[in-house]
Amino acid sequence: MQDFGSAFGLAFGLVLSLDPELLEIVLLSLRVSLSAVVIACLVGFPLGALIAITRFRGRSAVLVLMNALMGLPPVVVGLAIYLLLSNAGPLGWLRLLYTPTAMILAQAVLITPIIAALSRELIEQLHDEYAEQFQSLCLSPLQSVRALLWDARYGLLTVALAGFGRAIAEVGAVIIVGGNIANLTRVMTTAIALETSKGELALALALGMVLISIALGINAAVMSLRLTASRHAFA
Amino acid sequence: MPSPEATAAAFGEARGLVYQVGERRLIDGIDLRIAAQGLSLIMGANGAGKSLLLRLLHGLLRPTQGEVRWGGRLQDIAVRRRQALVFQRPVLLRRSVIANLRFALRLRGGDSDRDAEQLLAEVGLGAKARQPARLLSGGEQQRLSLARALALRPQVLFLDEPTASLDPASTQAIEDIVLRAKARGTKILFVTHDLGQARRLADEVIFLQCGRIAEQTRADQFFANPASAAAGDYLAGRLVPH
Fold first, then answer.
1. Cβ separation of A138 and B58 shorter than 8 Å?
2. pLDDT band at residue B193, thresholds of 50, 70 and 90?
3. Which one of A125, A126, A136, A148 makes the best mutation probe of the B interface by having the most chain B beta carbons within 10 Å?
4. Which of A129, A147, A232 sits opposite B132 (nearest CB)?
5. A1 falls in which pLDDT band (50, 70, 90)?
6. Does A138 touch chain B (CB under 8 A)?
């Protein structure tokens, strides 16, 4: 208990003093996960919207696949990206393995199905309400998708947040493709795993506190935005 | 039987229109000619097929049999772009009042503040332009729906019981807008089962019963001396099978 107590004390000290090592890890984590979320949203939102408004043969199978991919095991994604980017792999010439870009790629692959599946569900509900009106207005699928994405914007923020939550907390894929290299690819989750295995609880706890604070802060911000939107009947 | 106006200058035409769900014919062989001008009112009891006929005429539903033509041309997307429909329950985008209107204006290639503000003023919503559309009252939402439909500059405006759940003042406001649109030359097809409203607005009445046209005639003639027994019963307030 004493060890825990002193570890907590040290952790608070690291956070309050803005320890450079801690800061570097936090900033890299944010950079990697936010980039992955942006990529996943750029792909997942339109994909989800398109599947929501179109009916085609095999759609049910696509939906099952999308939902199944939401539970993609991170280590499998990490392994697949590793094989793709390793020297012997088809994209080895890009020399991206053990770089933050590889980690962004891995996280984006991991969360794109989550964002696509959740946005499909959200937009399908909205489309049920708008479908006849859009049909009367003779909107093209592209016009419909644009209008639906805009009108679902506050709901989609929550979807993006779910993706961010998954990305920032992820460890299996980024440790495989990033390698957990100090000052280069070490992010909060991989650092916590490493420091804990070394018995260095102070840094691990400090990173844990930051991780939880970020999650709470972003959730609170999105929640307040959604409440404002609901008050204005936009959500 | 088509009214003399419709026969003289038919702009819209439905031939052998059937809409069937399973074994049941909800629209059962309708032949209809619609004049290019004026307000044609579609009446009938609940379940007679009024809203269904409106959707078939606008092309929102594909008929099981038969065809619809406007200006001699088969109903297609180009024809539908010159039409607009206002639903019984307004479907408004999750945006401000003016953004809802600009959305429609953009679809027809004109999106100026002046056009949007002018239309809003015309429907009495000028002061509410920046408010969220979904926070308007029911009557205001329906006026906005109507303004959005008019922003499309339709040749034919379909109205599906637009005042069904509105108070008299809101109904009056909607009727005024509709009559102004008619005066500007927009063909109006208006579904209602409100007899008072029918008397106030209609130039022609198309009376439906059981998915068929029981009577299509001039409004004054319809109210003074309905030709069909079903319309007579309806006007007398007797129960009419739908």
1. no
2. confident
3. A136
4. A232
5. very low
6. yes
* CB pairs A-B closer than 8 Å: 42
pLDDT, one tens digit per residue, over A151-188 is 999 899 989 999 999 999 999 999 999 999 999 999 99
Q: Which residues of B touch A150 (CB under 8 A)?
A: 95
Each residue of B72-126: pLDDT tens digit? 999 999 999 999 999 999 999 999 999 999 999 999 887 677 889 999 999 999 9
Residue that has been written with the tokens 């990305």 in this structure = A167
Residue B176's contacts (CB-CB under 8 Å, 6 or more residues apart) are: none
Q: How far apart are CA A50 and CA B152, in angstroms?
A: 26
- Say if the Cβ atoms of B77 and A139 lie within 8 Å: no
Q: What is the pLDDT of residues A47-69, one digit of tens each?
A: 999 999 999 999 999 999 999 99
What residues of B are in contact with residue A147 (Cβ under 8 Å)? 93, 103
Q: Are A151 and B94 a contacting pair at CB < 8 A?
A: yes
- Domain range list for chain A: 18-234
Cross-chain CB nearest to B91 (options A133, A233, A234): A133
Tell me, yes or no, if A136 comes closer than 8 A to chain B by beta carbon: yes
- Tell me whether 0.85 is exceeded by the ipTM: yes
Confidence check: pLDDT of B2 > 70: no
The matching CATH number, chosen from 1.25.40.10, 3.40.50.300, 1.10.3720.10, 1.20.1560.10, for A18-234 is 1.10.3720.10
Q: Which of residues 143-162 of A touch B (CB under 8 A)?
A: 143, 147, 150-151
